User: Fold this.
Amino acid sequence: MALTTYVEAIRQGIWEEMEKDERVFVLGEDVGIYGGAFKVTAGMLEKFGEWRIIDTPISESAIVGAAIGAALMGMRPIAEMQFADFISCAFDQITNFAAKCRYRWGAGVPIVVRGPSGGGVHGGPFHSQNPEMYFVHTPGLKVVCPSTAYDAKGLIKAAIRDPDPVIYFEHKFLYRRVKEELPTDDFVVPIGKASIRRPGTDISVLTYGAMVYNALDAAKELEREGIDLEVVDLRSLLPFDKETILESVKKTNKVILLHEDTRIGGFAGELAAIISDEAFEYLDGPIRRITAPDTPVPYSPPLEEFFLPKVSDIVYVARELYAY
Amino acid sequence: MNVKDINPEILARQVVPPTRLPPDQTLLDLLYYMKLTRELEFRIERKLYRQGKIVGGVYVGRGQEAIAVGSCINLRADDVVCPSHRDMGAFLIRGMSLRTILAQYMARKTGATRGKDGNMHMGDLKHNLIPFVSMLADNVPVAAGIGLSFKMRGQDRVALCFFGDGATSRGDWHEGVNMASVFKVPVVFICNNNQYAYSTPLERQMAVENVADRAEAYGLPGEIVDGNDVLAVWDAATRAIERARSGQGPTLIECKTFRMTGHSAHDDAGYVPAELFEFWEERDPINKFERFLKERGIITASGIEDLQKRIHREIDEAIQIAEKDPFPDPEDCLKDVYYEES
Ligand SMILES: Cc1ncc(C[n+]2csc(CCOP(=O)(O)OP(=O)(O)O)c2C)c(N)n1
Assistant:
């Protein structure tokens, strides 16, 4: 069977939901004729017509605001941000309007706001950001960050069907680099469930997004030294899978928290607090964080390489922690 | 949009023709900077990018050179420019060196942002150039604030702020232009209306016919010029700059033009009807201006050839230097997030 790329998996997920449910539609910049800057919506204009694949003006705030309005009237909009970096232009609509509707007056806002995030492609400070934590800090939103083609498809479907606003970050580095065989039947990946990518006994690496692959590469390298990493792919950051996280920590007793996002206020800090609160007595070593430094994402290759967490960082920290 | 939708008289009907001419030396400077812009961007997009020497995105302003060049040439050194992503001429006229620009595109330590940012995201307070951030129209409220500071301190300085037609759909654009007009600050807003924003044609971007129509809502003059006529741009900008300098407030100038490339180096612009490219190719701003200068006897054909040779030489030299320039040290990643005592 043919392998499906991560980007194609997202496209399939949207396509199938649109075929099944007339309320689902896409709006965003260059999503129609052009099929999206990264071709996530390629071919959809021809299939679904210009009122379900809507090319908008360059107005991120209006894209999300209009999605909210349509959702309140019973539609299921998917709002594309051409790059996740530009979600800042829609911040107010997402965090104030969408996120607080249900809490204030009981109305659900079933929108999906999706866009490519992450670095590694020399996009510089405005085409490489990982903006997830702005939204993880906003009660009322859900935030997902798939790392595999299977999850990309399963999570976009879950996000579209979800009764609440979901922010869906697609890692652009993975778009065409990651592929796998996908089942032909309809499947979803539930929001809020982690996945153990590699079971192990010595150290838990809790991570998400493109860093899952760095963790797996590190695990392969450490295997030769007899260090057995367990790689947990969080998949959803809000809500997150506390049960799987704690179970893993209780099993391995040592933990590395890894993300591409910057350090202060990153998800690792939250995880460290939870582990300390609820599994402290199981720990046999300090909780270690591996993250990007607290700087913007730089453009020049040597700077960006320095910025992004590397396999060698994980190997180094894991050895140290193993010996602890 | 197809060709039959373009009223060939559109320019003649709406556009304010130039009312005066600059001195001969300025005419020659205009030609030099337009040709320098074209050749530099050609090298960047068609040579260096394809040779893999530039990583990341490349956006050029081919066919739009008259806009930045015609509007910036008359500025004083203490005026401020906020360019957008197709305004290479602004950097050149403001005195940013070819080597600095090329090093920026090649991600070197000697580039305008020392490798921190790429391509046209360049700036330097030394040249009174405010670098662009990708979020379109973010520079518009900033320009209003620059104008505000001039006004508060009684300085007769002016700020020029550039953007595309698509950028005028953002809320920040409207907030910035409105505030500039309410405070009557010395800012000239210059739109390169190249008819497309990425793949999105103008009529999908706005329900008014002209970007300049937006000015009325905010109480500032909106003028339309042929953006492929450097003299028309020069004239309109000169008047708007004088107006701003003399305390009469901001102006919006819409320059009608066309993007003669894809959105960026990876986009083949398959969505643009070929006839549109042909229509605008005939109106190429550099060819048009060269014809004018030759007719007037201001430059000869061989004079133009010499100029082209000089430009080639200048760019060749700069590329040679920039290519040998070092990349930043990896640890530079951590520098300059905040003020550091040196
Ligand atoms: C807020 C924001 N949304 C989307 C983009 C992606 N983007 C970059 S350039 C561009 C088109 C810009 O069109 P226009 O303003 O007309 O300028 P042009 O490129 O035509 O000169 C888009 C959509 C962006 N940079 N910023």
User: Anything to note?
Assistant: Chain B touches chain A at residues 55-57, 107-109, 113, 115-119, 121, 133-136, 166-167, 169-172, 197-200, 204-206, 271, 327-334, 337 (CB under 8 Å). Chain B has one domain: 3-334.
